[in-house]
Amino acid sequence: MTSTRTRFGGLLAATLLAHAAQAAPSPKIDAEASQRAITLLLAASEDVIPADSTCHGIFGGGNPGRMRDLVAMELATFARGDNTLEGGCQTRGSVPALACHVDIAHAFGEDASSATIRFQAVAGRLVASSLDCLLMP
């Protein structure tokens, strides 16, 4: 199940990156780094968003909110307009955790929204308690 979820996450990430690249090409996007961060985020889709996280909210999936609900809400606007989906992870000295981020942006006329989702990953797994979001309607 995990390997199927990981493969699905990688495929979905690649598809979303390709769509975002076609809609709003940017030479600054590092596709491999973005895929790594997005895959970590999607692999945690069943994780509950901690109540004390800045990512916590009601996303249409009911309570408690899960990562999949947050990601689905942010990607729902990607049907048209200028869209970007990018991210990356960095190591911080000798700390075993990766510091990762995924940035999602949408613009269509006056309609604009963006989200920055920051998190840490340890041993290839997102650490839910590290979630930090900046969501702009």
Distance between the termini: 35 Å
Order of helices and strands: HHHEEEE
Radius of gyration based on Cα positions: 14 Å
Helix content: 25-40%
Percent of residues in beta strands: 35-45%
Mean pLDDT: 81
Total DSSP E strands: 4
> Helix tally?
3
Ranges with pLDDT <50 over ≥5 residues? 4-26
Largest sheet: 4 strands, antiparallel
Going by helix content, strand content and strand pairing, the class is alpha+beta
Question: Reading side by side through the largest sheet, how are the strands ordered?
Answer: 1-2-3-4
**Which geometry do the CA atoms define?**
globular
Question: Structurally, how many domains make up the residues?
Answer: 1
Question: Explain this structure to me?
Answer:
With 137 residues, the protein is of the alpha+beta class. The protein has one domain. Helices cover 32% and strands 36% of the residues. The protein is built from three helices and four strands, in the order H-H-H-E-E-E-E. The protein has helices at 2-23, 31-43, 67-75; strands at residues 82-92, 95-108, 111-122, 125-136. The chain has a four-stranded antiparallel beta sheet with strand order 1-2-3-4, with helices on one face.
